[in-house]
Fold this protein.
Amino acid sequence: MKRNVLIIGAGGVAHVAAHKCAQNNILLGDIHIASRTLEKCQSIINSIKAKGSQRGAGLLQAHQLDALDIEATKALIRSTNSQIVINVGSPFLNMSIMTACIETGAAYLDTAIHEDPGKVCEAPPWYGNYEWKRSEDCRQAGVTAILGVGFDPGVVNAYGRFAMDTYFDKVESIDIIDINAGSHSRYFATNFDPEINFREFTSTVWSWEQGQWKANAMFERRQDWDMPVVGKNTTYLTGHDELHSMSRNLGIPNIRFWMGFGEHYINVFTVLKNLGLLSEQPVRTAEGLEVVPLKVVKAVLPDPASLAPDYTGKTCIGDLVKGKKNGKPQEVLIYNICDHKESYNEVGSQAISYTAGVPVVAAAMLIANGSWDVGHMANVEELDPAPFIDLMNRMGLVTRIRDAQGDRVLHPQHESVVSANARKRSPQVAANHYPKGEHKLPKNNAYVKSALR
Ligand code: NDP
């Protein structure tokens, strides 16, 4: 059993993670929020108090921290007795925070791959450039480090693994499809950190095709999908974190990531890029001021968290998996629908932050109860997906499946073949199966109850 959580970062995802930790603090213990700007941590605490999210007794404290300072981070982990660190700060912080965890023994979780401020779209596999280099150190220290456990990356990795174990003898392809069919009232905004958002698209798009890496330009390959609830949408092939681990860990020949973009986003992006305003490389102004154009663009765009009050509509993110079962072609779509307004009503955030913040807390809870406290570094598809999907069903992110039998809520424990197949593929994973009913979880909100019916 591990207890006491240190959340690092105080942006949109941290806001959701802090609310969800507070809702589950009977299991998780004390909650500490640390970030560069103390006021933002305090404002999250005020929001938790205003919403009455905290269920049990325990500390709820704000701290100022520069998480690039490894010694300061180690000192805070120790002084707060935190055994679980949730890194939902900027992706530039990953390796510093991971080092602090390895050196203090705290479990480490994040929701995005590490980035070097001076580089974009590095050579694949991206995890090999940074995180996986510390894999042996985690194993030797017995430190659990779960990488990329937001929605995408994160939940979509678990969906891929669950589909492969449960519904297929052989998987040919996984297409991860991410649609935000919501609308905010701003001229232009990104749904999470603009700097990170743009960095995903400014250079080569990597995808995994026919068992090897394939490079494309952004917006070069377009695909229309008819998705549940949100309907017909246009997406474009995009490079994304999860491809860089799933390609290694699942042995599936084709794994692609498709993100929905409207014409307006593409126009603004194209103008900014062609003007050089999305560059991560510094430029010098006539006055001798050195600035990074991308950081200036971030500074003038809306803070993604500020979009929440006016956001309406839904997101639909899922895995379309194709392959063979008993010699016959098989296709399943495993997905989640998240409503911007429902997210705002529950925790004061929009759905993009919500879909990233809930999974990382579910993973922290699985570390706290031992199910995912594996004592080494793991990407999400290497862990048993059943307890994760099951727990999220009860925390506000309900998983659904659409296949030849129709469209229904996916309850992992009702899928009769899962345990047999999982055991065949990975005895360790099957042995670690989630003990049903172990947690005393808070009562779910009305949306979750109705979605589970
Ligand atoms: P924000 O930019 O809103 O928040 C980042 C936070 O990190 C800010 O509070 C910032 O502080 C803090 N920070 C930056 N540098 C430091 C530092 N040196 N020391 C301490 N704190 C620091 O991002 P989001 O909340 O939107 O996203 C958080 C993470 O989640 C990102 O890595 C993002 O890529 C990831 N994400 C993952 C998703 C998924 O599904 N997997 C989806 C969406 C996001 P300050 O407030 O002072 O700027």
